Amino acid sequence: MRILKNIFEQNKKWAEKVKQTDPDFFLKLSKQQNPEYLWIGCSDSRVPANQIVDMLPGQLFVHRNIANVVIHSDLNCLSVIQYAVEVLRVKHIIVCGHYGCGGIQAAWENKEHGLIDNWLRHIKDIYRYHQSKIDVLETDKQKVDLLCELNVIEQVANVCHTTIVQNVWKTGQELAVHGWIYDIKDGILKDLNICVTNLEEISEHYRIK
After folding, report:
1. Which of 90, 98, 118, 145 is least surrounded by Cβ atoms within 10 Å, i.e. has the fewest?
2. Side-chain half-sphere of 176: how many Cα atoms within 13 Å?
3. How many angstroms separate the first and last alpha carbons of the chain?
4. Cα angle for residues 120, 126, 129 (degrees, 5° grid)
5. pLDDT tens across 10-27, in order?
6. Catalytic annotation on 128?
7. What angle is formed at CA 96 by the lines to CA 15 and CA 163, rounded to 5 degrees?
8. Of the residues 77, 96, 101, 148, which is catalytic?
C-alpha cells in the first residue's frame, strides 16, 4: 500500500516501450526541454494534456488547475507563464477547458463546497458578466456548456492582460494565445476561434504603456 508497486511496474513498461521506438529518447530529453507550447488546462484526470494532442514528453509545457483559471494573484500560474515565455520562449499558449468540467458545474450550483468556493468565485463572476446570454438557453446542460466556453475566452484575455505577455509582445517576440475546449465524450478538441497575437488585439483599457 505504501509503495504502489503497480505504478512502478507500469512506469518500467512505459519506459521500455518508448526506448524500443527511440533508444536515445530519454538521453536526448535529459539534456534540454524545448517545447513550443504552454498548455493551461484543467486538473481533471480525464483531460491529460500530452495524450489528447498525441505529444511526447518534452513537447508541451503544462500548467493545470481546477477549471483552467488564470488569476492575476496566482503566483504559481504567473511563474509558469513567465518561465514559458521568457526562458523556454514558447510560441503558443493554449488555454484549454473541457465540457463536463466539475469546477464549472460546482460554480454553477448554489451550494457550499468548502475552500474551493473561493477559487470558483471567478467562474461565478464570468456568469454574472454574461448572464443575459446564458439565461436564454433552454437546459442547464446548454448553460453550463456555454459557461465552460466563456470561461476559456475569459482566461485567454487574462493571459493577454498580464505584464509578462505584454512585455514579450513589446520586444517583438512571436507569441500567440489560443482558446480551445475538449469534449470528454468523444475525445475531440474544438477551437473557440480566439487567437491573440499582439497588443493591438486586446482592449486598450488593459494595455500597459
Report:
1. 118
2. 9
3. 56
4. 145
5. 999 999 998 998 998 898
6. no
7. 105
8. 101
Joined grid coordinates for residue 179: 482558446
Would you say 37 and 61 are in contact if contact means Cβ atoms under 8 Å apart? yes
Active site residue 145: no
42 an active-site residue? yes
* CB-based contact 86:164 (threshold 8 Å): yes
Reference 37, options 110, 96, 99, 90; nearest CA is 90
Burial per residue of 58-97, b for 16 or more beta-carbon CB atoms within 10 angstroms, e otherwise:
bebbbbbbbbbbbeeebeebbebbbebbeebebebbbbbb
Q: Which residue out of 63, 96, 98, 161 is catalytically annotated? A: 98
Mean pLDDT over each residue of the chain, to the nearest integer: 95
The pTM score is 0.93
Q: What span, in angstroms and rounded, lies between the C-alpha atoms of 33 and 50?
A: 15
pLDDT tens column, 134-182:
999 999 999 999 999 999 999 999 999 999 999 999 999 999 999 999 9
Q: Which of 42, 77, 148, 160 is catalytic?
A: 42
The span from the CA of 79 to the CA of 162, in Å, is 11
By C-alpha distance, which of 102, 107, 97 is closest to 64?
97
- In Å, what is the CA distance from 126 to each residue of 86, 91, 151, 182, 200? 29, 28, 7, 19, 24
Respond yes or no: is residue 121 known to be catalytic: no
Q: At what angle do helices 140-160 and 116-129 cross, to 10 degrees?
A: 100
2 is catalytic: no
